[in-house]
């Protein structure tokens, strides 16, 4: 009985403590579950993509000049090895002195923050370690729930379990915001001080660390006094942390904040080239804009910043064509002939990203088409040479007729002169002889695809036109042994790991014209500049080129588009001046001479910076192209009879010779309506005839002869050598 009573007593006691025990057990279980949830639940909050911080891509010149950036967040990522210890310690001293001791969370601080939040019924205190700040900024930036602090702790613990302290600190120092759209210490170092993070001084590091608590309050560009006060607080923290001594702290606190002058905008002349580079990246490297905004690429270009600025500033003067008009636009291309590298690009007078890019706008080229679509193909086909005569007449081609600019027709004209004078009728006649299909085949080899099928191609009367880039590429064969290449603005692209990105499509050379054809065209284009349609303006060095213009559709005597493509031994250059829309008010009084003057002015400025060649060097494997021979008209032929010598009687003819000593003079005797070649001389104005029969009244005359064209000129006046009794 006693045992039974004892067991009942124990049972009653157990029943009495049942619920408290169950409550304790439940609380323990819940605490364990909560602990395990916090400990291991972070992986559900962690986002692998968020840890890969967006990095700005930079477009730079070979000398390091920055053309522009692309980014979602303006961040130049730096590794922890690149960040000096004192920079790290400046942030640790202010934000998390126990960073290397804790496991990611300061639980007393968290408890204190939660308590104060509950009392205030809103979030009033952070109480966050650097790891917690990083977790919050990476994974919880848009989370406004009461569970955010718990999630922050969970993510922080996960970071600490899976990343080293150095990894976490590197992410943090690259993630922090410094106002003005600047993220990370690498970007901030350059933005505020114009130096790399490795070059920062201790007081500069203190200022950066001081700013992140309230960047829009403590930025030196916003409030220099508050920035200095906060910087001194940071220096005190660094002294307490042991980074600097008290003496050093006092010394740094007396120093003024010395930041570089704030640059609100990039130099405007760089935007044009920057925009072209972005298009080329997408076309040749298969990198999207979105990838560039996050990927941290460095795009090294072929731009010469000096020449780019020169071209931009020359265009701003607007003194090369009249009348002044704010709607007048420009395009300018300067390409190295040897490599096809683009040295300078102007897309518009005041081009802005997203605006009309005239480098890629198809524009009517006018007479620029003649060398590339007519005369080059004609010589390549072997149908005509520089000294061959072309028909220069008003011809009806099944309803299509073309006029020369001055409505003067010579009947026939040497190709050489037709190019120099830029005559229309010979160009159309020649294209008709060559054939439109063959001409288009030549153009297509240079990546110029036109839909047109008519003879108006010869004069640049195209449905859609050509871009200034296409024109520049098409003239390069004349200086580069007949070979074409696609223009290129990019030297190389490096990814965030400094590895070179390969092109999807490489730069290739294509043979368009025979070397001799190319050289002949170049020499003729040189005379276009010396004495033809491109003689305007001043440039002292070697220059060849071709002009082009289009008639205004409303004001028939005015110009809509004015072109000049020039060739120097080093560069191929194209300048276009014109209007996007031809209206009653949008016109130019001047023709292509405006573009010629502008081009020569830019080249002259370049010559001051780098010496441009004074002559074109003839390749060893081509023959020189002589300048055409202009045959004189002789009207002053005289003849005398002379006595003496072996033959007793001689006849001497005299006339005024041409200044061109290459002219051959053929002497003819007319007898009974027939002519007999007596002899010829070269370069002089006299000829002696032996054995003259003074009793016959033979007529003599001189005919100038062109050895280049195998053609004779106009006969001179005739004289008689006789002796009258």
From TrEMBL:
Residues 64-238 form the Glycosyl transferase family domain. Residues 331-577 form the Penicillin-binding protein transpeptidase domain. Keywords: Carboxypeptidase, Cell membrane, Cell shape, Cell wall biogenesis/degradation, Glycosyltransferase, Hydrolase, Membrane, Multifunctional enzyme, Peptidoglycan synthesis, Protease, Transferase, Transmembrane, Transmembrane helix. SUPFAM superfamilies: beta-lactamase/transpeptidase-like (SSF56601), Lysozyme-like (SSF53955). The chain crosses the membrane at residues 21-46. Pfam families: Transgly, Transpeptidase. Coiled coil: none annotated. It catalyses: Preferential cleavage: (Ac)2-L-Lys-D-Ala-|-D-Ala. Also transpeptidation of peptidyl-alanyl moieties that are N-acyl substituents of D-alanine; [GlcNAc-(1->4)-Mur2Ac(oyl-L-Ala-gamma-D-Glu-L-Lys-D-Ala-D-Ala)](n)-di-trans,octa-cis-undecaprenyl diphosphate + beta-D-GlcNAc-(1->4)-Mur2Ac(oyl-L-Ala-gamma-D-Glu-L-Lys-D-Ala-D-Ala)-di-trans,octa-cis-undecaprenyl diphosphate = [GlcNAc-(1->4)-Mur2Ac(oyl-L-Ala-gamma-D-Glu-L-Lys-D-Ala-D-Ala)](n+1)-di-trans,octa-cis-undecaprenyl diphosphate + di-trans,octa-cis-undecaprenyl diphosphate + H(+). Signal peptide: none annotated. InterPro entries: Beta-lactam/transpept-like, Glyco_trans_51, Glycosyltr_51/Transpeptidase, Lysozyme-like_dom_sf, PBP_transglycosylase, PCN-bd_Tpept. It comes from the Bacteria. This is Transglycosylase domain-containing protein. It comes from Gracilibacillus marinus.
């Amino acid at each position: 009985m006693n045992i039974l009573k004892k067991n009942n007593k124990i049972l009653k006691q157990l029943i009495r403590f049942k619920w408290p025990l169950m409550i304790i057990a439940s609380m323990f279980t819940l605490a364990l579950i909560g602990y395990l949830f916090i400990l291991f639940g972070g992986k559900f909050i962690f986002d692998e993509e968020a840890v890969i911080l967006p990095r700005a891509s930079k477009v730079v010149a070979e000398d390091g000049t920055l053309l522009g950036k692309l980014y979602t967040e303006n961040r130049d990522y730096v590794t922890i090895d690149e960040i000096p210890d004192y920079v790290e310690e400046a942030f640790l001293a202010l934000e998390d002195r126990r960073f290397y001791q804790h496991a990611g969370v300061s639980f007393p601080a968290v408890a204190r923050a939660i308590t104060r939040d509950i009392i205030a019924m809103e979030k009033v205190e952070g109480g966050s370690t650097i790891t917690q700040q990083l977790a919050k900024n990476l994974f919880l930036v848009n989370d406004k729930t009461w569970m955010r602090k718990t999630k922050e702790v969970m993510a922080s613990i996960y970071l600490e379990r899976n990343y080293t302290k150095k990894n976490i600190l590197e992410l943090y120092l690259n993630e922090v915001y410094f106002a003005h759209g600047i993220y990370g210490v690498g970007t901030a170092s350059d933005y505020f001080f114009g130096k790399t993070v490795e070059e920062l001084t201790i007081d500069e590091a203190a200022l950066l660390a001081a700013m992140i608590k309230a960047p829009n309050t403590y930025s030196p560009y916003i409030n220099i006094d508050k920035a200095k006060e906060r910087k001194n607080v940071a220096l005190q923290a660094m002294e307490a942390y042991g980074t600097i001594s008290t003496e050093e702290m006092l010394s740094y606190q007396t120093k003024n904040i010395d930041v570089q002058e704030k640059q609100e905008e990039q130099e405007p002349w760089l935007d044009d080239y920057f925009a072209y580079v972005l298009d080329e990246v997408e076309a040749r490297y298969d990198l999207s804009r979105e990838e560039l905004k996050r990927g941290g690429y460095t795009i090294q270009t072929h731009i010469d910043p000096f020449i780019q600025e020169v071209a931009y500033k020359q265009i701003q003067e607007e003194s090369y064509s009249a009348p002044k008009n704010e709607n007048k636009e420009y395009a300018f291309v300067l390409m190295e002939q040897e490599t096809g590298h683009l040295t300078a690009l102007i897309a518009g007078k005041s081009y802005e990203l997203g605006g009309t890019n005239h480098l890629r706008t198809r524009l009517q080229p006018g007479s620029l088409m003649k060398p590339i679509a007519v005369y080059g193909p004609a010589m390549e086909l072997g149908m005509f040479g520089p000294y061959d005569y072309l028909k220069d007449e008003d011809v009806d081609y099944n309803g299509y007729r073309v006029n020369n600019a001055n409505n003067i027709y010579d009947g026939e004209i040497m190709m050489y002169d037709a190019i120099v004078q830029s005559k229309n009728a010979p160009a159309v006649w020649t294209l008709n002889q060559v054939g439109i299909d063959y001409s288009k085949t030549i153009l297509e080899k240079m990546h110029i695809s036109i839909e047109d099928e008519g003879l108006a191609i010869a004069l640049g009367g195209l449905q859609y036109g050509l871009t200034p880039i296409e024109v520049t590429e098409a003239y390069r064969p004349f200086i580069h042994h007949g070979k074409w290449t696609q223009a290129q603005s990019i030297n190389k692209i490096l990814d965030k790991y400094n590895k070179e990105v390969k092109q999807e499509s490489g730069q290739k050379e294509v043979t368009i014209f025979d070397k001799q054809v190319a050289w002949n065209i170049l020499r003729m284009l040189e005379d276009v500049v010396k004495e033809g349609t491109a003689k305007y303006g001043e440039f002292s060095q070697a220059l060849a080129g071709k002009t082009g213009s289009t008639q205004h559709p409303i004001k028939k005597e005015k110009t809509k588009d004015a072109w000049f493509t020039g060739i120097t031994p080093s560069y191929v250059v194209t300048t276009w001046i014109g209007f996007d829309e031809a209206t009653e008010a949008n016109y130019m009084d001047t023709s292509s001479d405006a573009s010629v003057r502008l081009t020569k002015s830019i080249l002259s400025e370049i010559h001051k910076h780098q010496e441009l060649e004074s002559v074109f060097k003839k390749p060893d494997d081509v023959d020189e192209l002589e300048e055409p021979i202009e045959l004189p008209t002789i009207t002053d032929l005289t003849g005398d009879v002379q006595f003496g010598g072996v033959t007793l009687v001689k006849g001497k003819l005299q006339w005024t010779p041409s200044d061109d000593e290459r002219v051959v003079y053929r002497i003819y005797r007319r007898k009974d309506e027939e002519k007999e070649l007596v002899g010829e001389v070269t370069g002089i104005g006299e000829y002696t005839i032996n054995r003259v029969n003074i009793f016959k009244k033979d007529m003599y005359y001189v005919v100038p002869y062109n050895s280049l064209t195998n053609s004779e000129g106009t006969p001179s006046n005739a004289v008689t050598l006789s002796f009258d009794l």
